[in-house]
């Protein structure tokens, strides 16, 4: 039975639950549940702090886990775990910030106190950039208050919209330390039974979220032009209609291009143009 670690709370938890449900796995109904078995799919879910998931997977206690790339790297598990798949949600940027106008570059942080919740990640980054701070101040939360409260000169934190920093009178500066998103991680070099099915299902959800199915009728004389607009993943499906001058076409189209494609098809004379959601797919 495949043992999967899932974030137990927060936005990462909700999005992880959604993608697993879309992939056909049962999920807990009570947030107090710490372990849940899905016997039909032969998997067992363990609900853990997102920050701890990489440690359990790297140590071999669990086979795979859904967590953030920033949390995975901050855990400093070395080569014992590896990133298997990017999941496309919970995107954020890890950046330096300080009171507006105080610093402009990474070099300004030499000899300064930097507060963060990601000690390992920050320490590795600064070493790689040959910057020696006075010290790294660990905080479990509310990092943006560290400067105003006098415990740090600057901070390094995950930034999504930047509104919280601005409210605290802070601005980001320098280049981003890293970009993060939710990922699937596993034990390095190991392929436990059921992992291929999990990966295939998750990849199917990711594709289904990005595409819609377009159906339309078009005159045969315009079929080549219409097919160029909707080439699909391999090629569109063409079906004859009772009226031999017309055919029905079905093809996958990127969701963010859907309306543009429908307009182009209409201009070519296509009619009965229908876009429908894709709930599951196997590539």
Summarize, please.
With 283 residues, this protein is an alpha/beta fold.
- What is the succession of H and E elements? EHEEHEHEEEHEEHEEHEHEEHE
Number of structurally distinct domains: 3
Strand content: 25-35%
Mean pLDDT, all residues = 93
| Radius of gyration, taken over Cα atoms and rounded to an integer in Å | 24 Å
CATH superfamily of the largest domain: Periplasmic binding protein-like II
Q: Report how far the terminal alpha carbons are from each other.
A: 24 Å
Number of helices: 8
CATH top level assignment of the largest domain:
Alpha Beta
Order of neighbouring strands in the sheet with most strands: 2-3-1-4-11-5
EC number: 2.4.2.17
Pathway: Amino-acid biosynthesis; L-histidine biosynthesis; L-histidine from 5-phospho-alpha-D-ribose 1-diphosphate: step 1/9
Domain Histidine biosynthesis HisG C-terminal: 208-279
Enzyme class: transferase
For the structure shown, list the relevant keywords.
283 residues, alpha/beta, D-Maltodextrin-Binding Protein, domain 2, Alpha-Beta Plaits, 3 domains, six-stranded mixed β-sheet, five-stranded mixed β-sheet, 15 strands, 34% strand, globular
Characterize the structure shown:
Residues 49-203 form the ATP phosphoribosyltransferase catalytic domain. Residues 208-279 form the Histidine biosynthesis HisG C-terminal domain. Its EC number is 2.4.2.17. By secondary structure, this protein is an alpha/beta fold. It has 3 domains: 2-90 and 181-193, D-Maltodextrin-Binding Protein, domain 2; 92-179, D-Maltodextrin-Binding Protein, domain 2 (3-Layer(aba) Sandwich), CATH 3.40.190; 211-277, 2-Layer Sandwich (Alpha-Beta Plaits). The protein has helices spanning 10-22, 53-58, 69-74, 119-128, 163-167, 195-210, 223-229, 258-267, and strands spanning 2-7, 35-38, 43-48, 64-68, 81-86, 92-99, 113-116, 135-138, 154-159, 170-180, 182-187, 211-219, 237-240, 246-254, 271-277. Strands 2-3-1-4-11-5 form a 6-stranded mixed beta sheet. A hairpin with a 5-residue loop joins strand 13 (237-240) and strand 14 (246-254). The longest helix is centred in the C-terminal third of the chain and has 16 residues, at 195-210. It is globular, with a radius of gyration of 24 Å. The two termini are 24 Å apart. The model has no long low-confidence stretch (mean pLDDT 93).
């Amino acid at each position: 039975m495949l043992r999967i670690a899932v974030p137990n709370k927060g936005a990462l938890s909700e999005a992880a639950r959604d993608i697993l449900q879309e992939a056909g796995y049962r999920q807990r109904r009570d947030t107090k549940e710490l372990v849940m078995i899905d016997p039909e799919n032969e998997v067992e879910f363990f609900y853990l702090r997102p920050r701890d998931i990489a440690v359990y997977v790297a140590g071999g206690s669990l086979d795979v886990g859904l967590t953030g790339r920033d949390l995975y790297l901050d855990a400093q598990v070395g080569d014992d775990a590896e990133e298997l798949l990017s999941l496309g949600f919970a995107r954020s940027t890890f950046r330096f910030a300080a009171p507006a106008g105080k610093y402009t570059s990474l070099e300004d942080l030499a000899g300064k106190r930097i507060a963060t919740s990601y000690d390992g990640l920050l320490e590795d980054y600064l070493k790689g950039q040959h910057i020696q701070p006075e010290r790294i101040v660990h905080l479990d939360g509310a990092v943006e208050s560290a400067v105003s409260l006098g415990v740090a000169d600057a901070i390094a934190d995950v930034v999504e919209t930047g509104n919280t920093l601005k409210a605290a009178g802070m601005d980001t500066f320098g280049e981003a330390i890293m970009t993060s998103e939710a990922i699937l991680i596993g034990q390095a070099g190991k392929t436990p039974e059921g992992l291929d099915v999990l990966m295939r299902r998750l990849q199917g959800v990711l594709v289904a979220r990005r595409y819609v199915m377009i159906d339309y009728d078009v005159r045969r004389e315009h079929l080549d032009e219409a097919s160029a607009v909707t080439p699909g993943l391999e090629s569109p499906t063409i079906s004859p209609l009772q009226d031999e001058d017309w055919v029905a076409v079905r093809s996958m189209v990127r969701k963010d291009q859907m309306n543009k494609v429908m307009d182009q098809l209409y201009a070519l004379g296509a009619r009965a143009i229908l876009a429908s959601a894709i709930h599951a797919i196997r590539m």
